[in-house]
């Protein structure tokens, strides 16, 4: 029989072995919300004509239910959105029914909050929109139009009038200097003094997602991921011949063929064994040119569909002739990337600021031994939308103003960032895993709109 000391040592070794076994089992468990999408052909795309009805239905829902809420929260009695053709206010297209291609001539939208909390939706412009807007004035004389606006404001007599001017939020800074000056010219002094920035209202309006939008949003993200899967395959890539530029233009053309506008030019880069990557480099996947077997590929794409914009980054591996799977080191690195995602999204708590979420994520990642960088941003009507900034790729500290914005429920984010990890198969050369997936925060947890990448795309 073993001595008491040896027995305790033996028991301790068994406990450690059990713990390691549990840890190994947990690490072998597939990350939640992983989803493989093989092609955009799995998902329908509405013709442009057929997009009008659902887009306008979602707009009418927002105007009827969301706008009264965010106007009340911002404590505004009236909101003015005044813009001209060619210099549309950033918020304009989120407010008008389709098909609308411009703020023709000068377009004035007036939102007036009534005593019962409902909001009148009024227009003073040459070409009336019809429902859901009531036309107060239409015609061709610009001086008469401005006077009609001043008369309307006097009739409604709002105490707090929001206008789109902002030092820090470009989405809330759509009122041009000349239009602002003209507004002041036609308003009596006591109404001029009631004007105030509507930035809180604009941010809440743009960042909040409705249930109907989420259904469309998930479909849009699925299309983006589907096209990436098509590109990261042997149907598109011939190792030793296809270039990263070929792939970027394939992505662009494929989206064009589907009738899906991109909001930035897609790009593709690679990492290759023998090319150094250090912790000081913000990005290691910067190589462009002919794709070879053994390369690690990365892409970044963004499209818009039914007014919802996506932002997606995924990774692929080009198999060597004797390989059927990505090297274990790459699989482990992708798993670490998923772990970083989980650390970040676990820190999403209603009311926390973007800066607070960033600091907590960095602390938890460091405690887990993960080398990571977090630069997550809101998405919605814009790919880079207003809301809480959670880190910047060139600033892993607090971001003033935008990073101080609190997290609200019913908002969407591009869960974006990267991890770095030694790759044994490449003589412990550092590999960088860059991930970005569109997700939704319901107030309690983060839900990926079309799943997330947890398996490597393989080019055979």
Automatic annotation (TrEMBL):
Matching Pfam families: Peptidase_M24
The keyword Electron transport belongs to this UniProt entry's keyword annotation: no
Residue ranges that the Swiss-Prot or TrEMBL entry lists as coiled coil: none
Keywords noted in UniProt: Signal
Record-annotated Peptidase M24 domain positions: 219-416
Record protein name field: M24 family metallopeptidase
Signal peptide annotation: 1-26
């Amino acid at each position: 029989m073993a001595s008491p000391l040896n027995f305790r040592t033996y028991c301790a070794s068994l406990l450690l072995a059990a713990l390691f076994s549990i840890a190994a089992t947990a690490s072998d468990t597939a990350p939640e919300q992983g989803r493989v999408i093989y092609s955009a052909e799995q998902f329908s795309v509405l013709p442009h004509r057929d997009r009008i009805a659902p887009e306008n239905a979602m707009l009418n829902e927002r105007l009827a239910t969301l706008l009264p809420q965010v106007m009340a929260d911002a404590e505004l009695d009236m909101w003015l959105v005044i813009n001209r053709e060619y210099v549309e206010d950033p918020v304009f297209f989120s407010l008008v029914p389709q098909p609308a291609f411009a703020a023709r001539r000068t377009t004035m939208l007036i939102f007036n909050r009534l005593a019962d909390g409902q909001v009148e939706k009024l227009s003073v412009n040459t070409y009336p929109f019809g429902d859901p807007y009531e036309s107060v004035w239409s015609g061709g004389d610009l001086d008469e139009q401005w006077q009609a606006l001043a008369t309307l404001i006097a009739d409604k007599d709002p105490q707090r009038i929001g206008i789109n001017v902002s030092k820090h939020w470009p989405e809330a800074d759509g009122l041009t200097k000349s239009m602002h000056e003209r507004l002041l010219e036609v308003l009596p002094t006591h109404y001029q003094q009631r004007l105030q920035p509507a930035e809180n209202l604009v941010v809440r309006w743009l960042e909040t997602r409705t249930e109907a939008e989420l259904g469309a949003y998930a479909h849009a993200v699925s299309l983006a991921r589907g096209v990436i899967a098509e590109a990261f395959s042997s149907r598109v890539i011939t190792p030793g011949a296809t270039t990263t530029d070929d792939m970027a233009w394939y992505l662009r053309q494929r989206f064009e063929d589907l009738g899906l506008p991109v909001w930035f030019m897609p790009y593709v880069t690679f990492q290759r064994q023998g090319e150094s990557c250090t912790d000081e480099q913000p990005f290691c996947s910067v190589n462009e040119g002919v794709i070879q077997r053994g390369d690690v590929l990365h892409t970044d794409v963004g499209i818009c569909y039914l007014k919802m914009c996506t932002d997606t980054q995924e990774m692929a591996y080009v198999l060597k002739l004797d390989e059927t799977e990505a090297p274990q080191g790459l699989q482990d690195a992708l798993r670490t990337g998923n772990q970083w995602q989980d650390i970040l999204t676990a820190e999403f708590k209603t009311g926390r600021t973007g800066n607070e979420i960033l600091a907590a994520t960095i602390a938890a990642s460091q405690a887990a031994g993960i080398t990571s960088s977090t630069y997550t941003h809101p998405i919605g009507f814009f790919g880079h939308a207003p809301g809480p900034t959670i880190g910047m790729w060139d600033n892993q500290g607090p971001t003033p103003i935008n990073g101080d914005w609190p997290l609200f429920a019913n908002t969407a984010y591009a869960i974006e960032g990267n991890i770095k990890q030694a790759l044994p198969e490449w003589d412990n050369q550092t590999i960088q895993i860059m991930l970005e997936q569109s997700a939704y925060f319901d107030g309690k947890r983060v839900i990926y709109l079309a799943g997330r990448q947890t398996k490597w795309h393989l080019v055979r």
